[in-house]
Amino acid sequence: MEEDCIFCKIIRREIPSSIVYENNDILAFNDINPQAPIHIIVIPKKHVESVLNADGEMVRKNIYSNK
Ligand SMILES: [Zn+2]
Q1: In this predicted model, what pLDDT tens digit does every residue of 8-38 receive, in sequence order?
Q2: 29 pairs with which residues across the strands?
Q3: pTM of the full structure
């Protein structure tokens, strides 16, 4: 857990956000400053330094599954 990480703060509810979906692995929320009419940010609950470090299998399971 990274104290100063904005995404971790959102997960801990230290920063208010408009959460649209949450499960054990990820949390999705509406972007505060949307660049499109619908702009949802999906973040892994396990802190990662960069999305490039994200667990690819976990991302696929959550983002591409529609069950
Ligand atoms: Zn973090």
Answers
A1: 999 999 999 999 999 999 999 998 888 888 8
A2: 19, 41
A3: 0.66
Residue ranges with CB less than 5 Å from ion ligand 1: 2, 5, 7-8, 47
Compute, in angstroms, the gap from residue 7 CA to the centroid of ligand 1.
5
Residue ranges per structural domain of the chain: 6-64
pLDDT tens digits for range 36-61: 888 888 888 888 766 566 666 766 66
CA distance linking residue 55 with residue 63, whole number of Å: 12
Fold type of domain 6-64: HIT family, subunit A (3.30.428)
Asked if 17 and 10 touch (Cβ cutoff 8 Å), the reply is: yes
